[in-house]
What does this fold into?
Amino acid sequence: MVERLSAEARKAALWELAGWSETSGREAIAKTFVFKDFNEAFGFMARAALVAEKSDHHPEWKNVYKTVEVVLSTHDVGGVTKRDIDLAKAMNAIARQLGVS
Amino acid sequence: MVERLSAEARKAALWELAGWSETSGREAIAKTFVFKDFNEAFGFMARAALVAEKSDHHPEWKNVYKTVEVVLSTHDVGGVTKRDIDLAKAMNAIARQLGVS
It folds into this structure.
């Protein structure tokens, strides 16, 4: 099982993750991505879904037209782990390719 | 512009839409689909996204692993229209093909 990150480790990881922040009320990290339109938003989701499925670690996410709100946490440990950080990095990389930071 | 359905017309339409109900607090219809796993849940979303994009009418939806919560309304008219009913029917048909009702 992956290790739950301490508050300090979480903060250090977030420091290098553009646009991600801690959520209030639970141990998780979140980011809202805003794309050009639905085509790009869902394109992002499709690519991120493949990454998530391959690593067997899935996001909570909400899509409204061109916006995708993502929350990541590792349910098994009730907090944020390296798996969340890795998925967040992958999502940032996919968004960057679509011209969104 | 499509016409906003009256409360009566909404209820009549919902009568034929398995699993959909009115939301509280706003004029919209909602349904939570529960699939076998993420693969099926996102497969449903991918197919529904193509329908939505083709008809230029998009859902608000949230996905957590095998669950997809959908809310439909027509923002232009601040209520539910035939476009929402049509998208809801299409989503039910896609889910049915995946063995979910």
About this structure: The interface with chain A takes residues 38-39, 42, 45-46, 49, 52-53, 58-65 of chain B (CB under 8 Å). The domain at 7-97 of chain B is CATH 3.30.1360.20 (Gyrase A; domain 2). DSSP finds three helices and four strands in chain B. The mean pLDDT of chain B is 96.
